[in-house]
Amino acid sequence: MAFDILSAVLSSSAVPAVMGGVLKVLRSGLPKEAAARLPERAVAGEDLERAQAILAETAARVPPDQAHSLTLEALAAAHNDAQGVRTERMRQARLTFNAAITLAIIGVLIIFSGVGLLLLRDVVAAGSLTAGVGAVTEVVSAVLFRLNHEANKSLDQVGKDLSAIEAAQIAMTLIEKIKDPKTRDEAIREAAKDLRAHHH
What we know:
By secondary structure, the chain is mainly alpha-helical. The chain has helices at about 1-10, 20-30, 30-35, 45-60, 65-120, 125-175, 180-200. The radius of gyration is 26 Å and the shape is elongated. The mean pLDDT is about 80.
């Protein structure tokens, strides 16, 4: 039953790299024949779907307490992976933004100096060349701004994955406190259903 929540997180993840830790935890905790069929790492959505299918078919053979602790451990690994991906993408976004701003400023200054040469000194060749270099710099800056935009979209996706993982961790922590097995199973089903509904 606890695997339902982990499966919901797997299905909501749009960043397969975040699930590397989950697969490692599952490989160590699932029965050997199921663990051997898990993908080595998640590089595409099909890998996550395959992991979900193996998880579903193995769930009945894993004792509830072990499934619960394995789910908590896998969620913690997913959270750590997501934080790592987020940190790296934040660094990349910051670098591309700083480079784009720097190039934009340099490009504008070069364009102005080229126009100044054209107007003040009547040096057409040098002025044209300088203005052209400035224009090229502006184009490169625009490309870097586009890369920055893509990095920010990617960060948003990692943020959504982190949100789903944290919601699952909270749900599992609260469900752990329920003593009645039937009530606990129902709470797990509801939490998994909510996770799937809110993160698609």
